[in-house]
Amino acid sequence: SIDRTFIDSLPKAELHLHIEGTLEPELKLELARRNGVEIGQSTVEQVRATYEFTDLTSFLAIYYPAMEVLVTEQDFHDLAMAYLCRAAADGVVRAEIFFDPQAHTSRGIPFSTVIDGLWSAVQEAPSLGVDAALIMCFLRDHSVESARETLEASLPYRDRIVGVGLDSDERGNPPEKFSEVFAAAKDAGYRLTMHCDIDQEQSISNIATVLHTIGVERIDHGTNILEDPSLVAEAKQQGIGFTCCPVSNSFVTEQMKGAEIVQLLREGLKVSIASDDPAYFGGYVGDNIAALAEAQHLTRDEVVQLARNSLEISWADDARKQDWL
Ligand code: HPA
Ligand code: ZN
Predict the structure, then answer these.
(1) Which of 5, 88, 105, 213 is 20 to 30 A distant from 175 in Cα terms?
(2) pTM of the predicted protein model
């Protein structure tokens, strides 16, 4: 088997990481105390006991309410710094961090509070050896108008945000719901990615839409593409990046989807590995690579390829990429 020090020693990018999903029980308790928010839990064990779910829907039902402890700019800064320290230990040299502004603005936290707190952490990241960037995600179970307003609110901060994504509950919220918003985001200079979750029934048609109509550079999750070999060929030809999260998959579907991830990798697609919501799923990026390597008996060369892919499909400056690759 492949030892963990080898995995951690490889420079890598983490490209599928929801900052709100890095809220560890210890920090949740500290923020609740600091902000005087009554959360109904007072020990780490009690908080961890609430981090219980069986699928994406039950996960999201716990995930959004837990964010009530995030109130001030300092809270967002501290959340992001805690993640960046943890990522640096796993050899992450580039972190593209998802954030969900609507999960905060919808409960009265100003957009500026969220972005200012996260941005100050991004600026501090090089001191940890990490080049960090922010990707703003729209919540697909909110209205198109809300997404449009969020895009509008982001424009004064355009230079702090590298791209946009789409997350939350995919059921009944297909990518075409947001085609106009994504076209406007692209016009504003944002790079594009979208979640295509693994537990969906209309998954393959959503993946086709994401590739053909939305015009993304990356797909988050997306392993269901294997159901349509012509789409696999297209994604390969276009160099579409995939950000796969084996530990998260095993919570959402009771399977890592390891065989699917590795099949795409072996067919030459740009597959990378990431942690999604590590505080909830219990594994940071190194744990995710180690779990996949073990379950699928990856070779050292394949593990190296996963790390290289993550850097290649990252949205870092080309000069930085050349240094890492
Ligand atoms: N899918 C959809 N929404 C999410 C996810 C995910 O993997 N993680 C956090 N929000
Ligand atoms: Zn995700």
Answers:
(1) 105
(2) 0.97
